[in-house]
Backbone:
């Protein structure tokens, strides 16, 4: 797979990711207010991630800045991995996986770097793009999440240890297109490990282009 095709894939994911985030940010109020219930197991809503995955936050005045800078360095590392893999004629599985991971990481970095200075908050009304009074500063933006798939929700059986009788929701994470790209890329590396890190073959090319 050429670097040109990998770049096109990255660009398409970034465009879809940012369009969806800007739409959600400017049309939804934070939390479950005004959420869209597409199905009982699929909802669209606005949540903003202050820190890392699952809402983890690095404490301290410079925690958010450290996280954003770390993400930027990580993306440069992934970009170098992609470039060397293409130059080494790596497997298409590997190139696609790295491209997805790069696009996802870059998409969330855009939020972290710029959203704090181009949006106001979304707590009482949908945000305004290029607002006069933005909610944050450069490098201190919040990552926008919107996809929620609560496949099952209810009380667990009483006989279960520790969690018995407690309310439980599966799947409880709220995420975005960038997160999906990262998860898919990592999934490809895990499921197709031998093909991803093995030599590129004609048979593999035919499978991916089918």
Residues:
């Amino acid at each position: 797979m050429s670097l040109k095709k990998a770049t096109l894939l990255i660009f398409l994911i970034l465009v879809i990711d940012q369009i969806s985030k800007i739409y959600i940010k400017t049309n939804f109020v934070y939390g479950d207010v005004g959420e869209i219930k597409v199905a009982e197991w699929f909802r669209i809503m606005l949540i903003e991630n202050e820190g890392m995955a699952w809402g983890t936050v690095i404490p301290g005045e410079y925690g958010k800045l450290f996280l954003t800078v770390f993400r930027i360095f990580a993306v440069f590392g992934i970009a170098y991995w992609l470039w060397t893999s293409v130059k080494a004629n790596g497997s298409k599985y590997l190139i696609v996986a790295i491209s997805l991971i790069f696009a996802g990481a870059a998409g969330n970095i855009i939020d972290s770097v710029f959203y704090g200075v181009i949006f106001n908050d979304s707590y009482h009304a949908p945000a305004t793009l290029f607002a006069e009074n933005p909610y944050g500063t450069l490098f201190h933006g919040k990552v926008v999440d919107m996809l929620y798939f609560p496949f099952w929700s209810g009380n667990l059986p009483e006989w279960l240890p520790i969690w018995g009788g407690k309310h439980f929701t599966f799947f409880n994470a709220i995420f975005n297109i960038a997160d999906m790209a990262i998860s898919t890329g990592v999934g490809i590396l895990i499921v197709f490990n031998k093909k991803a890190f093995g030599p590129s073959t004609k048979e593999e090319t035919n499978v991916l282009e089918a």
About this structure: The radius of gyration is 20 Å. The chain has six helices and six strands. The first helix runs from residue 3 to 27. The chain has one domain: 3-209.
